[in-house]
Amino acid sequence: MESAWRVWQSSKTRFTDMAGVLPGLIADTEHAARIHHPATDPDRRRTIMRVRADLCFLLRSYLRRTGRVDLSIMAADRAVRAAEEADDPLRTAAAQWNLGHALLASQEPDGAEQIALRAVEELRRAPLAEPERVAMSGALHLVAVVAEARRRDWSAARDRLRYHARPAARSVGEGNIMWTVFGPTNVALHEVSIEMEAGDASEALKMADDVDASDLPSMERSFTFNLEVARCHHLRREDAAVLLSLLELEGLAPEDLARTPLARKLMLTVIRRGRATHARQAEKLAERVGVF
After folding, report:
1. How far apart, in whole angstroms, are the C-alpha atoms of residue 238 and residue 207?
2. What sign has the CA pseudo-torsion 23, 24, 29, 31?
3. What is the distance between the alpha carbons of residues 77 and 112, in angstroms, rounded to a whole number?
4. Of the candidates 192, 197, 77, 98, which has an alpha carbon nearest to the alpha carbon of residue 143?
């Protein structure tokens, strides 16, 4: 499972790679779950449930990025059940983090925030090492930050970043606990996102200049950050900068670029309103990634 997660977070062809790997992983994990019953071998059963939870985390992310939000929610729900059966408090918290993101994708920010903050409270009582508790709590606070931003409650989102997520990130440093990519850089990316969503593209770009996302363990997170930078340039009608950002994204993650609605929209905008030279380059990019 570790190797599958590394591929999903780092491969430029991760969708193609996962399409070849996931069916076998699902079949093997479900077969192991069927033949190892709790009454006969409880320790082995818990181990299998941890693997099942990790697989469901991966499925949640994959399904969401392929546009199947409905199945993404189903995978997140199954992850919760697997983590609870494994009696694993860290994975249970991670399952709530995944469920929160699934609800955000389905436009349910209130539910996502409630789940994330309830999980933070449960972590306070969980028998975990303090760095794990702090990092996982910080990641859950970021779910709540996104939910508050979706409700356009900018003040609450900024305060949660300032008083909860940022101190947690400073305490634990850069990391990737349960594949959440939590750390100071990810917190900074959320700060940029809030200013962009609030409509202050200039401030977002200024903040983005101070962020280096190149060393993040998740290529997807780097992709999202650079796409948001492209969107900020779009809001300022800086089509040359939009095109440059899109070309950089093609080099970083061509399959993500082809599958992301916002990226496709930005390409078409440059084609429609950009200078002739920029429009031609955008057309070639759109052809390469299959927009038309």
Report:
1. 17
2. positive
3. 13
4. 98
**How confident is the model over 59-76, as pLDDT tens digits?**
999 999 999 999 999 999
**Sign, CA torsion 33/36/39/45:** negative
Residue 137: CB atoms within 10 Å: 25
> What tokens appear for 223 in the block?
């992709």
Q: At what angle do helices 2-10 and 42-65 cross, to 10 degrees?
A: 10
Query: Residue 17's closest CA among 217, 248, 281, 219?
Result: 219
Residue that is written with structure tokens 């969708």 in the block:
15
Q: Give the number of other CB atoms < 10 A from CB of residue 162.
A: 12
Confidence of residue 39 (pLDDT cuts 50, 70, 90): low
Q: Taking Cα atoms as reference points, which of 29, 76, 74, 25 lies closest to residue 50? A: 29
Buried residues in 237-266 as b, exposed as e (16+ CB within 10 A): ebbebbbbbbbebbebbbbbbbbbeebbeb
For residues 160 and 145, the answer to whether their CB atoms sit within 8 Å is yes
In the block, residue with structure tokens 């850069």: 174
Q: What is the pLDDT of residues 236-248, one digit of tens each?
A: 999 999 999 999 9
Assign 290 to helix, strand or coil: coil
Q: CB count, 10 Å around CB of 170?
A: 13
Residues comprising the chain, all counted: 292
The pTM (predicted TM-score) of the whole model is: 0.93
Give CA–CA dist 8/221, Å, rounded: 12
Contact 209, 233 (CB under 8 A): no
Reported as a single tens digit per residue, the pLDDT across 157-172 is 999 999 999 999 999 9
Q: 3-class DSSP state for residue 87?
A: coil
d(Cα 191, Cα 96) in Å, to the nearest integer?
22
How many Cβ atoms are within 10 Å of 50's Cβ, its own excluded?
19
